[in-house]
Amino acid sequence: MPSTFVEEDFPRGGRKVISSQKRSNPENNLFTTDNNKKSKKSKKVKKTQKEAVTEDVFYDSLNVLGTLSYSKIQEGMIILGCVRHVTNFSLEVELPGLTFGSVHVTNVSDAFTTYLSSTLEKAEEDSENLLKQMFQIGQFVIVKVLNIENEERGTKLKCSLKPSDINYEKSHNSFVKGMLVWGCVRSVLEHGYEISLGVKNCRVFLPLKNVETPLLIGQPMWCVVHKSEITNSVATLRVSSKTQHIKDSQVDKINSLHDVIPGMKIEIVTDKVTSNGIQGKFLNDYFAYVDHTQLRSPLDELDVYSEGNLLKAVVLYIEPSTKITHFTLRDVDPVPAPQHKVGDVLSAKVISKAPNGIYLRLLPSKEKCFVTNRRLIQALSKKSDSDLPEAITAKFPIGSKLTCRILDYNHISRMYVCAVDQALVNEKLFSNKDVTIGQLLNLTVDIVKAEGIVVTSGHIRGFVPNLHVSNAEFSENLKKKFKPGDKVNGRVLHVQDDNIIFTLKSGLVQSEKCLTSLEEAKRGSQYPGVVVKTKPAGAMVVFYNNIVGWLSKRRLDVANSDAEVNPTEYFYRGQVINPWVLGVKGDKVALTLKAPHSLKKQINMKVGQRVKGFVSKIYKDRVAVKSVRGLMLGIVPVHHLSSLPLCAAVLKEKALAAKAGTLGRKYKIRKFEDLKPGNVLRCSYISTSELGIYVLPLISDFASSVLIKNADIVDDGQPTPKFAKDQSIIAKILRINYDTKDLDLTIKQNKVFDNNVETVVTYFNQYLSEIQYLRDFGYNHGWDICQYRPGERIMCKVKVLDKGGCLVTLPNNVTGLVARHLCPDNLQQGQLIEGVFLCQDFKENYAEVCLRHDISQKINPIQDGVISITSLASSMTEKILVKNDFILGVLKQNGGRKQLVYIPSHLTVNDRIGCHSFYKKQKFKTCICGKVNSYLVGISKTLFLTLDKQVSLIQRRLLTNIQNLDTNQSCITQTDTNESEEALSANGSSQNEVSSEEEEETVRDTVLESTDSVNEEKSEDESFENDSNSSGVCGTKRKRHEIGHGKNIKFGDETIKKFANSDSITGPLPVLPGVSTFFNPGTNDDNVASSDEEEEQREVTKKKVKLTPKERAKLAREEEERLSKIEKELADSTTEPKSVEQFERLLVANPNSSEYWSRYISFHAAATDLDKARSVAKRALETIDMTFIDDKFNIWITMLNMENMFGTKDSFENTFNEAIKYNDPLKIYLQAITLLSNSEKYSEMEEKIKKVRSKYKHEPTMWLEVAKIYYLINKFKEARNIKEAALKSIQDRKTQLNIIIRFAIMEFKYGEEQQGAAIFETVLSADPKKVTVWITYVDQLVKKNRIEQARKVLERSVCQQLPLKSMKTLFLKFKMFEEQHGTPDSIEAVKQKAAEFVSKAVKK
């Protein structure tokens, strides 16, 4: 490079100083060929011409520099790059000129680094894939070169995408409308995104309407400025990130090259076309260059461009020395994936030559390819004596055809990088796709590392971990026998991303048996594996392709089976063993060391296969099942017997007397390929992790566990529920990947189930069917708890009295529980009293009983579910009992016949919260939804109105078939839960619909082959029920979209509304009787439209007529107690006010309380009623007495906080100006600065800091508080600058020392410990006599748990020669320190040092 290439000779952009320069003047044209004209110029003009870029220099720079290369790249350069590869922690980017750089995850953006840290702390699974979600291969980005490292294998560039690095030379007033800017998402707002440009005092907003796809926090991107409001102190920008807006943006004017960033579109004028590119100018004064590799198309020729052409180009980079801007004529749209893959062998034709290689055109695709000189030399004959360029020209003349192999694809230049060496072209092992798991290869040792050995075979490279170096237990001596160049045999263990892992273990290499997939793991087969982990319970064995197996301790083949074997001693890590396969469970293989002939015979079954067998044995948590021939099939966990938990009661000890019966249950199990997003699956719970829960979906050809993330289990803020082993869970498919067989599931109630009545009733119907089955089963098998029916009167003996109720004993010695509100007054232990049996609790094995006579009279002894209420949609119900799974109420109307109503307390099986909030009142209106056996099912009217009432086609089909089934079959083996899952699917898609014949067959096949005898008792009105089925709920005589209910019939002397009994169904229950007329405008039922208050008032009015004097007195007492309670609540100041009246009443009693006034202001502000909040604040300032200065000050701070949070900048400034008039201005300033920093309004905060520094620069408090604020927002540099400014403004030495010490303490507390320690050391070195400084220094170190460092500081302090009083203080501090953090020996050592010091002082 000529000596004139110094930066002083090249002002930015080559801008000439002569202001009258015009492009039409030939004297100003640097490319003119007339160099003979010379003219005398003044000294000043000569200086100007020296600073200008001359024509010769420009040409020389182009000839020398050309396109970009590693030798031309300098630190600090900003370059347009293209994403080449994305990992979890870094990006690899392509740069012009076949150069590459890497971007670490912490150099993407500051906002992304903060966001990533928070997600990693929360252990969110997505945190590992954020970069892959944010970037795609072929995407263009802007990078800044941070560091250049030259190594043996090449040059490494460390780059950054941070907007603060890209825009480091810009200020807030650099951005104008229409400019392309580089920024990142700082935060997500309600109506858009807050963007950070890395420039101070610059606020940027990206509206949602200007966004095409959702953005992640920290995501860097290009934006176009649509609106710019710039003042002297701050700039407010509104931008757009839409692709079309970015394409349309074009720069027409700039102040300097500082305003130009890569990716900008600018028009350039062609001045000259050379053999290597195009030279030109842009915006009149700046030089441009387009390399021949950056033309519109890779196959374009330079001869299509001529002088004077106006070209639209995109900035690539700016050369630091010459200030020449390099352009590309292509857009920055993401580059599509290449047509050919790496490793493909293709024919090509030589089309041109370059100094560093040749260019080819691939055939027949006609895409461009480049071969470097290094690759060409390898293809030349070793006997060639000619000059290298001549040899290349002779070997590869233009127009010749040859065979090449693709090595890479460069997105920046849109061309392939190839090799023509025949040895490489014919190489069989070129890439990872050329090897298979378990393949035996001859390997060459390349590098021996601490972690293992790098090996090569052909063109591929792999790695051998230390664990797989040898069959023997690993030690470092084993690797010493391997030298670079050694040949060894190895097998491909597995391929992970782009890495191939080999094994050299002879036990694996010499065996031809390779377990590479779970499908190969057949029972009884034997494969070699490696022990990777041992536990007392067994050993973990790994096979090829990371197939994991578990060898249980009891499956070890030892000589003495009675001996206790510890697998941790039996195996060593890395040992090769040859176990047999027992089976596959989930994604793991069960193993054994026992010979196959010792294994029990078992039927080979596939996942999802339907089998039939007998219950051979019953356990507490499962049942064992055998086939008809007596072969072992497996076990059925208790949670798989039903979707509800009640079936566990059947497996209690009392149920073991049941004979082993046939187990037949028919599910429609789908294949993976038939699944679609929105389908509902039944899953089995496996385990819980920090990321979520693992479940096993019931899919026929799928045996892997699936992680359901925490975000898909419950909503934010809700606790994660606990699950039991093998518990059945209903999940919905969110996303599905058919290639990798990956599923994303959710079990959120609002995602899985429809918010409709049918879903709620379906779930509760299954529950009640199980209750009925358990009652019948227990009654037939002599369970004492099942000998009573709901409503039955029984004599009870009081056993235990407690505040929460009492325990009673029933006649057959069954324990009964009586809730507190169901116990009468003056109850005594041992008393015999009549009670009403309400229900059984099968989980805890006790009965629920009511002993209160007034409540018992409201319950009919005959609970048959027969009622004659005309208004089924609005039935008054009184709450009797609240259980975990349901609420028991009793109908109050005469037509209700005192029947009990069962109300679900959970909407669905996945509902973990429940709906108890709808049943807080003792009396409420209920919609009677139907009847299951003799149980009336109801839902709160308020809840009913919030639910959907639609019935899908498949649900009606299922109901039509089910109405003909018997009503008293077992829910445990009867319910076709798979079909109910389809009915509950949210999308209701057509693929879930089946024909009526298939549904009927499915439902009927679910009935047990041998049923109980509970069907013998039939209703007297069975004939009517059959009639109602044919013309009622889902009868064919009604219209398909219409849903009705049974007819009124005569029963004795009264008219009764009769329901059709419902079986445990596979879809939703018949929609509520009366629902078809519930919202009908033409209904004549006035009671439906009446309010709860009116009905209650009518009932109270009726009762008042019948009240006795005793009852009236009781009511009067209750009313008096109620009023007294209200008065006490009003008088209690600790009660949180919830209305304006309550606040006003509270402030009348406490007019000077700033706390109550502030809460009143916040009450209105929270309701977004700022005018009322401001009015209350003014009242507070006028009302509070002038002597309560602090309370008035608190109100002003509350007003400032309100305006900062909800008001505008002007309203905040007006309030602030008023506040400083009536309060200490410094305090107001400091409080305002704190509020602004807490709300991250840093530009406004800096304005206030600037003012307060100029007004109160002699106040130490101001400097300390401002510094503290800077420390709290992690602006350590600004905080330390405050210290220096404070020491310059305050001249008092003592005050200066106090400030220094306070800053040291703040460094320890909020900043960097090393900096704080350095401040203390500086002070002590200057004045070691400051005892208080020594003690403060030690205290700060102790707070940071720097015990040893604090001990050393104390040892230094007591080695000084200070006055006796000072030394005494230091020794006492030392002693107290050792008593808290030392040992008895260290304490004695301190005492000894003190004694020695005293003795020396006395001698003196």
UniProtKB/TrEMBL annotation:
Ranges for domain S1 motif come to: 76-162, 438-505, 524-594
Composition bias type Polar residues, residue spans: 18-34, 1080-1090
Assigned keywords, A-Z? Nucleus, Repeat, rRNA processing
Give the region (Disordered) as residue ranges.
16-46, 976-1041, 1080-1105
Gene Ontology cellular component? small-subunit processome
Q: Which GO terms describe its biological process?
A: rRNA processing
InterPro entries in the cross-refs: HAT, HAT_Syf1_CNRKL1_C, NA-bd_OB-fold, Rrp5, Rrp5_S1_rpt_hs1_sc1, S1_domain, TPR-like_helical_dom_sf
One Pfam match, given by its short name, reads: HAT_Syf1_CNRKL1_C
Source domain of life:
Eukaryota
The GO terms this record gives for MF are:
RNA binding
Kindly list the places in or outside the cell where this protein is found, as annotated in its UniProt entry: Nucleus, Nucleolus
Q: Which SMART domains match?
A: HAT, S1
Designated name of the protein? S1 motif domain-containing protein
Q: What is the lineage of its organism?
A: Eukaryota, Metazoa, Ecdysozoa, Arthropoda, Hexapoda
